[in-house]
Amino acid sequence: MIDKLIEKIQMTGAPIVVGLDPMMRFVPDSIKKTAFAEKGETLEGAAEAIWLYNKELIDKIYDLIPAVKPQIAMYEQFGIPGLAVFKRTVDYCKEKGLVVIGDIKRGDIGSTSAAYAAAHLGRVQVGGSLCTAFDEDFVTVNPYLGSDGVQPFIDVCREEKKGIFVLVKTSNPSSGEFQDRMVRTGDTTGNAGGITFSDKTLYEIVGMKVAEWGEQLMGQKGYSAVGAVVGATYPDQGKVLRKVMPHAFILVPGYGAQGASGKDLIHFFDENRLGAIVNSSRGIIAAYQSEKYSQFGAENFADASRQAVLDMIADIDQAFAGVGR
Amino acid sequence: MIDKLIEKIQMTGAPIVVGLDPMMRFVPDSIKKTAFAEKGETLEGAAEAIWLYNKELIDKIYDLIPAVKPQIAMYEQFGIPGLAVFKRTVDYCKEKGLVVIGDIKRGDIGSTSAAYAAAHLGRVQVGGSLCTAFDEDFVTVNPYLGSDGVQPFIDVCREEKKGIFVLVKTSNPSSGEFQDRMVRTGDTTGNAGGITFSDKTLYEIVGMKVAEWGEQLMGQKGYSAVGAVVGATYPDQGKVLRKVMPHAFILVPGYGAQGASGKDLIHFFDENRLGAIVNSSRGIIAAYQSEKYSQFGAENFADASRQAVLDMIADIDQAFAGVGR
How far from A1 is each of A7, A135, A137, A138, B85, CA to CA, in Å? Predict the structure, then answer.
């Protein structure tokens, strides 16, 4: 699947992924009106509104981009009807040829991680049948529980030819609270077998583990199916991590609404404009609500989103041009 | 809600929580047969089997225990029908007067954590209505993203009188991979304002944060609605963390099937047998499959579970007696 993602990035010339993180306040009133008229101001009504919004959006932008990243929390808050629309969105995007990264940030102990992996990337045995639950192509994984929480995802990825992105350095303001902590690492030195300590940050330690885990799932194009999440809001850390994890594809949130721009992204990529995929969520899906795209109006929200995708591609192209790539 | 949990623990004399983590292989064949006959070997069939199994179990043990902890992964793997049974289980347990701890281990950046908090502890606005999605009493939260990922849960807890348990030191074998790392902490010393470094483990650092977050939500009985998860499999770390977080109620997984026994638990509690609640999952719900309770047989699986609950209470009582509490 990592090879397919890379092919799609090369085909579209767009190392970007659109975050399908719908909030009710992004959905144009006309869509809400239709949905609520049919299903009421209920979880079902909210889910229907999100589905109509997603579908119009996907139809308008799918040809420009390699991948989408639905954030499951935004669907989970609408309960069972919301999660049914998450699944419907995953299926619809796959029908349209998009790679689907489920932003689920799951992670637990062994057998429980195995259940999450089965839920989102694999299959589950029911009597004599194998059934699929959500069936994304990639998911995001939280590493706090260590290798035995991550390995079950890797095992399912091997079997199903899928992939994961492990949280390493997240884009939010307080990500450094734990992730930036200086951690003691014991490196043995040559002289007399003594031990010196060369400190590393926790995110580097996690990054080193991602590199190690990734060796199990190398693709054909130089990258592993075990990738990493590193926020665009921390370009310096991105530069470090690009070297720590040379074969990890990096999913980069934080572009646009969270404050990062094209020039912050360069160090996440390799010499061939590969190695990273940049996410934008509200900057694309709610573009019509920003001043820059307000001329489109709510009724043409998806056209505004299309223009925002084109502008994002151009911004990244320009950043590449600036460093001669 | 933390006060209600404490009252229920005192009322039942049982500082235990039963993990409702159903795996298909725990479900007796007769139940599977009934469910598959009605709904096929499908996600719906699996979900129905789990529901029948859960209901019989809950009916048999609810009077002995203060709380249950359904593990959402075990339901999520059966997709939408599975999650509908998760919700049905939550509702049924609350009807029976049980406190429900949703073991969801969610955690994300600000607005996304807010959506998870709304999904599981709060309400969500749909037009002019407020709707509830899953509505547990407590949930477990992953701290890797730092304060701005946790605060939205705390905000919803304040509003809805609910609570969280933050992962601090998990029960799995590789939990130490990141959680036990020695982290540099700068404590200023008295002399000349110089800085010395007194190292702490990452789990202690997270524990200190839990204590700090907890100050916002102190209950009437000496404990905060911000609790912590610390594995019974690490009793020494539990001893340290009990002191680091004096007002955090500790949810303790790892008893029974994962290897810990009553005597490992003592240091998680305070002098009044409070301050902790011990989880057992398969040791209770699949008791009939163990040699100790095999005489019950699959048809009486719920009676075996009831006996296992009684034995667990006795084991913990004995451990308290051993230290004169």
Answer: 10, 13, 7, 8, 32
